[in-house]
Amino acid sequence: QGGREVVNEDAVESDLAQYFTVAMSTLFALFVAATVAVKTETEKRERVFNRILLTNSHPLSYLMGKVVSTFCMTWVQLMIVFFASDLIMGLFPEKFVEFWLGIIVIVTFFSLVIAGLSAIFTSLMLRMKNVNAANGLFMVLIMVMAALGGNFFPIEQFPVWVQVLSEYTPTEITISLFTEFLQNGAAISFTAPLIKL
Length: 197
Prior knowledge:
Blueprint: H1 16-45, H2 48-54, H3 59-89, H4 97-127, H5 131-149, H6 160-166, H7 170-184, H8 191-196
Helix pairs in contact: 1-3, 1-4, 1-5, 1-7, 3-4, 4-7, 5-7
């Protein structure tokens, strides 16, 4: 009766505080994309976009400004959360330079995804007439991504078909990559998840 299971000795158990630090910080990063996009309404009202066109600049420069600023805000926000969590609560004990380099790579790719999402939201905002409808649409999309991505609770509690669907949300990919990286360190392959992102 029974059997034998071999556990990787190098694996470290990921605790709940680490999981929710990653989950909540990726959720708030989604809100950065929506916030930057919704600010477009104020810029439309104050004719910022028209002024950019009057300077003979390409309209894409406006969108790229939004993308770059979203990337920078998201990257800085996530890095502050992880460094502060480590300093204050000791969430990542005995982690060295390789660990923080891995965190920087994951955060950079996720920030690029959030910047791209901000570009989509900004483009929609420029086309939509009603700011409240646009804001509601962005919040619904963010909440669906967050629920499917495991930002509120671990995705293993969902049915299998939802788990398969969630594998294509940016937050689930990032949370899974973080969790695997926290457990196994540099032994994991970043290639597939980062390409998926």
